[in-house]
Specification:
Layout: H1 2-19, H2 29-40, E1 65-69, E2 73-79, E3 88-93, E4 96-110, E5 115-129, E6 140-144, E7 147-153, H3 156-161
Antiparallel strand pairs: 1-2, 2-7, 3-4, 4-5, 6-7
């Protein structure tokens, strides 16, 4: 019975893959399903809770960034929770603005039955191309409550070159 079902599945797969641009990959689908099923049946871990992997958020991940154009400046806001301003660096060079940050975290737990010591380190950097018409000498950065705000003032020329274009209907 199982042999007949396997042959029928193989025949269907050959027919489907003959026309598919992904020929050959469809045969792996049954294997994928079987592996998923096997992992779902694993029993809970026999290790004590202090050996299990914890689902902590990463120490530093790529920060969420908002970029807004205002009348007189561009404003970049980056969310950097858990970091201090001493661990953040903002640099401007050759038309590129770069934000770097790093954090090191350690945890130690001593109990009668075990001693747990964990260390985590993370860093990131993001670079942005600064638009023409930005005054690099007046770029400013501030940091408050885990949010970095960088202001890139526009030059007077850039502000005056902006022109509103009327839209006409046809």
């Amino acid at each position: 019975m199982a042999e007949t079902a396997t042959k029928a599945l193989a025949n269907e797969t050959r027919k489907a893959t003959a026309l598919s641009p992904w020929r050959g990959w469809d045969v792996l689908e049954p294997l994928h399903r079987e592996i998923d099923r096997l992992f779902e049946t694993f029993p809970p871990s026999p290790w004590p809770s202090f050996f299990r992997e914890r689902t902590w958020p990463s120490v530093v991940s790529m920060p969420a960034v908002d970029i807004v154009e205002k009348d007189n400046a561009y404003e970049i806001t980056a969310e950097l929770p858990g970091l201090d301003e001493k661990n953040i660096e903002v640099k401007y060079a050759d038309g590129m603005l770069t934000i770097r940050g790093e954090k090191e975290e350690s945890k130690e737990e001593k109990k009668k039955e075990y001693h747990l010591s964990e260390r985590r380190y993370g860093s990131f950097h993001r670079s942005f191309s600064v638009p023409a018409g930005t005054d690099p000498d007046r770029i400013a950065a501030s940091f408050s409550k885990g949010v970095l705000t960088i202001t890139l003032p526009k030059t007077a020329e850039a502000r005056s070159k902006e022109k509103k274009i009327p839209i006409t209907s046809q």
